[in-house]
Specification:
Layout lengths: L1 H19 L4 H15 L6 E6 L15 E4 L7 E9 L5 E18 L14 E7 L18 E2 L14 E2 L9 E8 L2 E9 L8 E6 L4 E7 L3 E3 L3
Parallel strand pairs: 8-12
Antiparallel strand pairs: 1-4, 2-3, 3-4, 4-5, 6-7, 8-9, 9-10, 10-11, 11-12
Length: 228
C-alpha cells in the first residue's frame, strides 16, 4: 500500500512539473491582446480587440517572455493574424487570429455630390460605424472635406474618401501672384507668375519677370510667402 501511495504521489509530482513546463494558452492570448491594444492606440474611435482561441492540442514549451509581431503587410486592425514567438529556452512560433474593431464616426454623403463641385456642409452626414470595414483614407471630420471637390460623382450614403477629393487651389497655373517676404522691420513684395496649381499652405513654384524660378507657400488671395 505504501508503495502504491508513493507511486501515485510521484506521478502527481511528475504531472505537475510537466504542466508547469507547458506554455499556458491564456498567456499567449493575453500577449496578443496587449500587443494589439498598443498597436491600435492611435486609431480614431473606440477600439475593441477580440483574440481567437489557441489550439489546445499544441504542447509548447513554457516561455518566460513570449513576443508578439505582425507579419509583413499585415495591419493591426480588422481581421488579422498575430505571430507569437519564443527565443529561449525552446524556440517556437505560433500564429493566432484576432479581430480589431474601431467604432467611430465617419463622413458620408447626405445627398448626391456632383463631380468637380465644391462640397458644402448640407451635403454631408456624420455616421457611426466600424471604421475597419470601410475604405482606406476615410474622412472622419467634416472639416477634412468642406470646400474640396470630388474626382467622381458620389451617391447619397457613400462614405467620402480623402484620396478621391481635391483641395481647391488658391493659386493656379499662369496666375499673377504677389511674392511676399517679411521679417523684423521689413517687408518686400514683387509680382510673379505661378507655374502650377497649389492649395493654401502648399509649396508652389513661381517665375519672376526676370525668369527666375522661386518656391514659396501659397496663400489665399493670390499671395505666395517666400523666405529669403
Amino acid at each position: 500500500m505504501k508503495t502504491l501511495t508513493s507511486a501515485l504521489l510521484l506521478s502527481a509530482i511528475t504531472g505537475a512539473a510537466s504542466a508547469a513546463q507547458i506554455q499556458d494558452p491564456a498567456k499567449l492570448r493575453q500577449t496578443v491582446d496587449q500587443f494589439l491594444q498598443v498597436q491600435s492606440a492611435g486609431l480614431p474611435g473606440k477600439v475593441t480587440v477580440t483574440v481567437g482561441n489557441v489550439d489546445g492540442r499544441m504542447k509548447l514549451a513554457a516561455c518566460p517572455a513570449p513576443e508578439a509581431f505582425l507579419m509583413p503587410g499585415s495591419k493591426p486592425w480588422g481581421k488579422t493574424t498575430v505571430g507569437v514567438r519564443c527565443a529561449a529556452p525552446s524556440p517556437w512560433t505560433v500564429y493566432i487570429q484576432a479581430n480589431v474593431s474601431v467604432l467611430g464616426h465617419y463622413i458620408a454623403a447626405a445627398s448626391p455630390v456632383p463631380q468637380g463641385q465644391p462640397i458644402v456642409e448640407s451635403q454631408l452626414a456624420t455616421i457611426q460605424g466600424d471604421l475597419t470595414t470601410l475604405p482606406a483614407s476615410i474622412a472622419t471630420d467634416k472639416a477634412q472635406v468642406l470646400g474640396r471637390t470630388s474626382n467622381i460623382a458620389i451617391s447619397a450614403g457613400m462614405p467620402l474618401r480623402l484620396d478621391s477629393l481635391r483641395i481647391k487651389p488658391v493659386v493656379q497655373t499662369g496666375q499673377l501672384v504677389r511674392l511676399v517676404s517679411s521679417g523684423p522691420g521689413f517687408k518686400v513684395s514683387a509680382e510673379a507668375k505661378a507655374v502650377a496649381n497649389a492649395a493654401d499652405g502648399q509649396v508652389v513654384q513661381v517665375r519672376t519677370a526676370g525668369g527666375q524660378h522661386i518656391s514659396g507657400i501659397a496663400r489665399a488671395g493670390g499671395m505666395v510667402e517666400v523666405a529669403f
